[in-house]
Amino acid sequence: MVTTLLIDGMRSVHCARAVFTSLTQVPGIDGADVVMGRATLTHDAPLDDAALRHAVQTVGYEVRTITTDRRILPLHLGPDAEGGGSA
């Protein structure tokens, strides 16, 4: 699963680093990518929205929205992906 947080108040790389460090303490997160204004989290089980909001608020920012895509489809580019293939 992939969860995206839109976060208000982040203005620098330091902000992103603080949010990343705080979110990594939330149980269940397998990976996190944090840039100014957004955090993208990968996980297998549902995450606790309250715990995510708390982790972000602890370092001084506010979560505007949380959205979760419950399935990840792998992208496989084979020979047919570019119109190739056998005749």
Task: Give the SSE layout.
Layout: E1 2-8, H1 13-23, E2 29-35, E3 38-43, H2 49-58, E4 62-69
Antiparallel strand pairs: 1-3, 1-4, 2-3
Q: TL;DR?
A:
This protein has two helices and four strands; from the N terminus they run E-H-E-E-H-E.
Describe the structure.
The chain is an alpha+beta fold. It has helices spanning 13-23, 49-58; strands at residues 2-8, 29-35, 38-43, 62-69. It has a four-stranded antiparallel sheet with strand order 2-3-1-4. A hairpin with a 2-residue loop joins strand 2 (29-35) and strand 3. The longest helix is centred in the first third of the chain and has 11 residues, at 13-23. The radius of gyration is 17 Å and the shape is globular. The mean pLDDT is 88.
Number of domains: 1
Q: Using the CA coordinates, give the radius of gyration.
A: 17 Å
- H/E element sequence: EHEEHE
Which class do the helix and strand fractions yield? alpha+beta
Shape: globular
CATH topology: Alpha-Beta Plaits
Put simply, the count of helices is 2
Oligomer: single chain
Total number of β-strand segments? Answer: 4
Which percent band covers the strand fraction?
Answer: 25-35%
- The separation of the N and C termini measures 38 Å
CATH architectural category: 2-Layer Sandwich
CATH class: Alpha Beta
- Low-confidence stretches are none
The helical percent reads: 10-25%
- The strands making up the biggest β-sheet line up spatially as 2-3-1-4
Q: Outline the biggest β-sheet.
A: 4 strands, antiparallel
- Arithmetic mean of pLDDT: 88
